[in-house]
Amino acid sequence: MRIFGRVRQRPSTDWRLATNRAFTLIDDGRYDDADALLTRAADLEPWLSESWFNLALLHKFRHDWEQARSAGLRAVALLEKDAGAPDWWNVGIAATALQDWPLARRAWQAYGLPVPGAASIGDEPLGMDLGGAAVRLSPEGEAEVVWGRRMDPARIEIQNIPLPSSGRRWGEVVLHDGVPRGERTTMTGGVASVYPVFDEIELWAPSAVPTWVVLIEAATEADRDALEQLAADAGYAAEDWSSSVRLLCRACSESRMPSDEGDGTAQHDPHDHSAPGRPGPLGHTGPGGLWSPERECGLAAPGALVRGLLDGWVADSPDSREWRDLEEVC
User: Fold this and answer.
1) Lowest mean pLDDT among 27-36, 114-123, 217-226, 229-238
2) CA distance 330 to 323
3) Is domain 2-111 in CATH 1.25.40.10, yes or no?
4) How far apart are the first and last CA of the chain?
5) What pLDDT, in 10s, does the model give residues 167-210?
6) Which of 254, 140, 150 is closest to 202 using CA atoms?
7) 87: closest CA among 66, 125, 116, 60?
8) Crossing angle of helices 49-61/13-27, nearest 10°?
9) 197 Cβ partners below 8 Å, 6+ apart?
10) Which of the four pLDDT bands, split at 50, 70 and 90, describes residue 133?
């Protein structure tokens, strides 16, 4: 096969050795050393799309989006097939990170996805609304899987209230990788649905809404639900971490796990806090699974509003509701 007048041959031994060594270094986190080897490989085989795909992948790991976009575009220019190549997916992630919306539209369309406004040359963000999914925050650390709304193939808006250890807030938008690591299944009306779990790459859009933790006394589940509804009506969120968060080992978190009743977007679809060697439920229930009135709740609301929300919740049923120990945690 000829590309730009040259006969394409199998990669040389030197190319394979440099590339294999580079990915060993990447696994060890030695990105600078891997960069030198992959750059050498690209010099050895500049007509090979894999040379530039590998460089684009490395720059994605380093969050060097300008370089990832540049190498990714060189890779797709050498592709032999029209659609579905992962090279285009990496270009789409880099373009999204850089808010290069015309290129993002082109990348997703070239990958084979239906993209609204793909023919537009405007600079408006994508608004694809791909439904519910889960994203693993801090995937290399004390990971936490939360539910969110997919805005496009590379962005998720967080809809749970993450635990403070994640450093993330309700309503933030995170850039995520394209290959799922794990799945969550939910049952709605007896019908099972499967949702992918994507790994976070980086924060894409921060939230100005702080996270609070508060201890509440809710005599019944309906009392707890009333607080969550009150916060939602105000345009913010409350979440009963005592029942919505579960502890999983990392191996379980990265497998297919059931998430009880839900649709992948509801506040009570469990989200996961992965800690090796610490599997098991976090929920506060009494003997035999009975309701325990004391609950630990996360609240996402401005400081000027949060106490008023809690006081209003108690005022609606003072005999069955109390709160104490409010603290801003993220």
Assistant:
1) 114-123
2) 19
3) yes
4) 57
5) 999 999 999 999 898 888 876 777 778 888 999 999 999 999 99
6) 140
7) 60
8) 10
9) 133, 134, 135, 136, 145, 180, 181, 182, 183, 184, 253, 254
10) confident
- Give the 3-state secondary structure of 66-123: HHHHHHHHHHHHCCCCCCCCHHHHHHHHHHHHCCCHHHHHHHHHHHCCCCCCCCCCCC
- Number of H helices and E strands in the chain, helices first, is 10, 16
Strand-pair partners of 218: 321
Q: Which pair of structure tokens corresponds to residue 134?
A: 């889960």
* Burial environment of residue 307 by CB neighbours within 10 A (0 to 12, 13 to 18, 19 or more): middle
CB atoms within 10 A of CB 65: 22
Q: What is the dihedral of CA 129, 132, 133, 136, to 10 degrees?
A: 90
pLDDT tens string 56-113? 999 999 999 999 999 999 999 998 776 678 999 999 999 999 999 999 999 999 999 8
Residue 330 CB partners (closer than 8 Å, separation 6+): 162, 164, 166, 167, 168, 169, 210, 211
Structure-token pair, residue 93? 């992630």
Please report, for the chain, the start and end positions of each structural domain, with discontinuous segments joined by +: 2-111, 131-205, 211-328
